[in-house]
Design goal:
80% helix
Length: 567
């Protein structure tokens, strides 16, 4: 702070106490100091001194210019534009002022102002045409002024000569203008003089798109003679073969692509993923063994690449071979044993494949190795599928005891409660639900399950009603929770209140559940709406193929007798 005051004090003496000549000399010296600060990265100090100088010498264009440059470094784009504009206004004949301002307009996304300024610079500084024209090409393209872009491109080529970059730009420009033949001719003429793998491959793409497969193949082949592993040409050549049903040549070319050490592994992963999306599943099925070979070649070339192994696994899973998919995911997880993500991906695939024994064994080992509670959940899920409910309780209890998170405790105790109930140990189940709600009073699955089991087993219906109502309040669009609350209302003889809840349940999945359809029919029966009750009982019958409601037919027969006798 003292340093700034010293600078201002010196400036005041120079400006107001010295003669005019000395004043000018003082400003020049302070200006040199400010420039030195700027060059040394002392941008805040430089800005303060330059602002003081701008007040003292408002007609000094250099002061405004350096003030603008300093603000660029400090991230003040608007201030920089204002002060660079002031410098250019004071000295319109200074090319660099205007050029730097144009660059700043471009950096801030104001391409309209950048284009206007560059066009003015081109007009006012004809000897600087080359550098200005080079910048104008892309601006004209972005503005859709293709004729102007071509003219600017010709100026660039007059000064720098034709290059692959300018020819490719001309090719894109002409194609944008619908002048396809001229575009291809420009590339052909350049390739005849200075052949390059990229230009020849672009020609191959052009001819392939135009349906001229023979010409496309020629250009791709020429490209590959210059660079045998040029990726776009390899892929283009393979596409010609694929389109022409030249199967052997297609797979031979793709084999080169997949086994190459030069082709980036990301390109191989992308090709496999795109093939799954783009190719006809029937074609993939017919050529499955040959596509398998391509995948295996890629994996052999990059045996420890995480993304490629994952892609290979997804390829096998998508082609209905979960056992082979598991092999790739296991390779990934084994290569990187400290990665919970890769381990989880493998275990999720084991779950999708229904290999519960392998999943349970793997999840137990992963939990011991990584200490991640998610793997206890995988183990519990596997044990549940095996109907080993005590093991589910054991896994969930370990998770609860090793977590301080209320949600972990609530979810864990809820699972324990569900398992005890499945084992017929009702009091143990209720005790677990109480522990879940103590950990998190708003944990909806515990509220719902506790309420439902309490109600259907003749427990305290009022307590069950309170919990079920809270569950629906917290999660109003879940069909199962709506059913629990509505059924408890039915048990409390509040069928008129239950009916609208069941109507809502039908919107949120109730139509797919034999239990919910049966419950709704019972409510309608209680309300005397027999015809509608019959409709929902019929739907319940259709959904009850797995015997979810074991006494359904017997109970419907009794209800039919009661409905008939009431007429």
């Amino acid at each position: 702070m003292k340093k700034f005051k010293l600078f201002r004090w010196i400036a005041a003496i120079l400006l107001f106490l010295l003669p005019r000549v000395s004043q000018a000399q003082g400003i020049d010296n302070l200006m040199l100091d400010a420039v030195a600060m700027y060059q040394n990265g002392q941008f805040k100090q430089a800005k303060q001194q330059l602002k003081d100088l701008a007040k003292a010498a408002p007609d000094n264009d250099a002061v405004w210019y350096y003030l603008g440059l300093t603000e660029v470094e400090l991230g003040d784009a608007l201030g920089a534009i204002a002060h660079l504009s002031k410098a250019a206004e004071l000295d319109p004949g200074n090319y660099w002022y205007r050029q730097r301002l144009a660059t700043l307009y471009g950096a801030t996304g104001n391409h309209k102002k950048q284009l206007e300024l560059l066009e003015a610079i081109k007009r006012d500084f004809p000897k600087k045409t080359l550098s200005t024209a080079y910048e104008l090409v892309n601006l004209y393209i972005d503005a859709g002024r293709f004729d102007d872009a071509l003219a600017a491109l010709e100026e660039v080529e007059k000064g720098m000569g034709e290059s692959e970059e300018t020819v490719r730009t001309r090719y894109d420009l002409l194609r944008s203008m619908g002048r396809e033949d001229e575009a291809a001719q420009a590339l052909e003429e350049f390739s005849a003089v200075e052949p390059s793998a990229s230009a020849l491959s672009m020609l191959g793409d052009y001819y392939l798109e135009a349906g001229k497969d023979s010409l496309a193949l020629e250009r791709y082949s020429e490209s590959l003679r210059l660079d045998p592993e040029y990726i776009p040409a390899l892929l283009g050549k393979s596409e010609v073969y694929r389109k022409g049903n030249r199967t052997d040549e297609y797979f031979a070319t793709m084999g080169e692509f997949m086994s190459s050490q030069v082709v980036p592994v990301s390109s191989k992963s992308m090709y496999i993923s795109n093939a799954l999306k783009a190719l006809d599943p029937r074609y993939l099925g017919q050529m499955q063994s040959r596509f398998d070979t391509l995948v295996n070649l890629a994996v052999a070339a990059h045996p420890s690449d995480t993304t490629l192994l994952q892609t290979a696994g997804m390829y096998c899973y998508s082609t209905n071979r979960p056992d082979k998919a598991a092999r790739f995911f296991k390779m990934n997880a084994d290569l990187y044993p400290d990665s919970p993500r890769l381990e989880a991906m493998y275990e999720e695939l084991l779950g999708m494949s229904g290999d519960w024994t392998a999943l349970r064994r793997r999840a137990e080992e992963a939990y011991r190795r990584l200490g991640d509670g998610r793997f206890l959940e995988y183990a519990a899920n596997a044990a549940y599928q095996q109907k080993d409910y005590q093991a589910v309780i054991d896994y969930s209890t370990i998770k609860v005891n090793n977590s301080e998170e209320p949600l972990d405790k609530a979810s864990g105790w809820t699972v324990v409660g569900d398992m005890y109930y499945s084992m017929g140990r009702r009091n143990k189940a209720y005790g677990a639900y109480k522990k879940a709600l103590k950990a998190d009073p708003d944990y909806v699955p515990a509220l719902n399950n506790y309420a439902y089991y309490l109600a259907i087993n003749g427990g305290c219906l009022k307590k069950a009603e309170t919990m079920a109502a809270k569950a629906v309040e917290l999660s109003p669009n879940e069909g199962t929770y709506l059913d629990t609350y509505a059924w408890i209302l039915h048990l409390l003889k509040k069928d008129a209140q239950a009916k609208p809840l069941y109507q809502k349940t039908m919107v949120y999945g109730g139509k797919d559940s034999a239990v919910i359809l049966d419950h709704y029919a019972e409510v309608l029966f209680a309300l005397g709406e027999y015809d509608l009750a019959r409709v929902y009982w019929q739907q319940a019958r259709e959904k009850n193929s797995s015997g979810e409601v074991p006494d359904l037919d017997e109970r419907i027969a009794k209800r039919e007798k009661a409905m008939s006798s009431s007429r």
